[in-house]
């Protein structure tokens, strides 16, 4: 059968049944057209379904990214607000501590209590790098030292009461500088012998103020020891080893670290990685070995604020370290195709194929990466609990 005309002739013969060979027959044009149309429709439907699925995946990725950005922003805003509140409180304390020491002590105790309770009762805490923060060095140094000392004390197993005393000592360790002339409040290499002796007096002045504030004896002892070194090279008493209490040894280490990162002259600042490396390589004998080991475990090889290059050559800045995973910090990467205000934090623990190749000075970054990552001139830290994005709402 090759045509409709042949079929019409056969029908005209009046035969009830006719045999034919399908393999030797042609398909009717309309039937062929129907098959082609059906195939085309099937292909179009498949393509449309694939497009819809791709659009749904893209929409879900956008929603997830937006949720992650929102979670990051919420956490950072909370950290920066609390840091700023603590800075303002320290300034207020300086203003009133000489005229009304007991009144000055109460809000400090309340603040430290909140910190300790949050660190002990709200799960795992990470050290978080803050944005460029306005503030004078005295106030920022006080808050930085308090946060890091409390986290280190927790890592070393101090009790709640011990952490309270450590926190008060850390927050107020330099309070005696309020009685010093401005020119000697921060140690400089070019100090004369007389200026250096005057600078050292801030320790005794701080103890005097601390007693007037009615601080606990362990807090006063830690304040007294915050410039002592376990090798006997510190001041005011050149103590050695176990003559220093645990809180004093913690405070001496953390105080030195923050002064290396945030010196009075910004041009002399070390990166957090450089500061940690210097302490370990050259000053290790000055600090308690248990405190130093715990400090390195907690801060990681690349502490928050370190500028790094990954093994895939991308540049980034470390913004958070979890002490249980110090080699896998969280970083913000230079992504030219993503606006810097939308940059996501990458958790290297969840990217096993990636790692850090090296740390570098901010000045060695390519100009585009330097502008994007904007390394801080002053390092400011706070603590945060684990950040989890809210799940995006299901599409309607």
TrEMBL record:
Domain HD-GYP: from-to ranges: 116-311
Pfam family, one: HD_5
InterPro entries xref list: DUF3391, HD/PDEase_dom, HD_GYP_dom
An annotated Gene Ontology molecular function: phosphoric diester hydrolase activity
Organism: Curvibacter symbiont subsp. Hydra magnipapillata
Designated name of the protein: HD-GYP domain-containing protein
């Amino acid at each position: 059968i090759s045509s409709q005309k042949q079929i019409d002739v056969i029908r005209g013969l009046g035969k009830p049944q006719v045999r034919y060979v399908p393999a030797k027959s042609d398909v009717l044009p309309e039937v062929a057209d129907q098959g082609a149309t059906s195939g085309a429709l099937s292909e179009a439907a498949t393509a449309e379904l694939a497009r819809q699925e791709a659009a749904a995946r893209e929409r879900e990725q956008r929603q997830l990214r937006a949720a992650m950005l929102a979670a990051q922003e919420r956490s950072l805003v909370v950290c920066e607000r609390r840091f700023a509140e603590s800075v303002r409180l320290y300034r207020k304390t300086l203003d009133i501590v000489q005229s009304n020491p007991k009144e000055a002590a109460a809000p400090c105790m309340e603040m430290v209590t909140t910190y300790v309770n949050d660190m002990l009762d709200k799960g795992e805490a990470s050290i978080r790098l803050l944005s460029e923060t306005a503030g004078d060095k005295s106030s920022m140094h006080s808050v930085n030292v308090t946060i890091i000392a409390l986290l280190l004390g927790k890592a070393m197993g101090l009790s709640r009461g011990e952490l309270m005393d450590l926190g008060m000592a850390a927050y107020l360790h330099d309070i005696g500088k309020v009685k010093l002339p401005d020119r000697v409040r921060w140690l400089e290499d070019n100090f004369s012998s007389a200026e250096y002796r005057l600078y050292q007096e801030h320790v005794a002045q701080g103890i005097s103020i601390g007693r007037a504030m009615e601080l606990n004896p362990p807090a006063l002892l830690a304040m007294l020891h915050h410039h002592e070194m376990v090798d006997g090279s510190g001041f005011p008493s050149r103590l050695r080893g176990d003559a220093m209490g645990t809180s004093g040894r913690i405070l001496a280490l953390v105080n030195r670290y923050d002064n290396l990162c945030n010196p009075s002259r910004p041009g002399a600042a070390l990166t957090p990685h450089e500061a940690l490396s210097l302490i370990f390589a050259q000053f290790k004998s000055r600090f308690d070995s248990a405190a130093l080991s715990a400090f390195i475990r907690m801060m990681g090889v690349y502490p928050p604020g370190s500028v790094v290059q990954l093994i895939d050559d991308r540049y980034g800045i470390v913004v958070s370290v979890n002490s249980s995973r110090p080699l896998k910090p969280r970083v913000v990467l230079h992504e030219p195709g993503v606006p810097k205000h939308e940059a996501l934090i990458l958790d290297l623990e969840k990217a096993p194929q990636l790692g850090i190749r090296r740390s570098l000075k901010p000045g060695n970054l390519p100009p585009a990466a330097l502008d994007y990552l904007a390394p801080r001139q002053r390092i400011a830290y706070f603590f945060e609990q684990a950040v989890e994005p809210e799940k995006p709402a299901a599409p309607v």
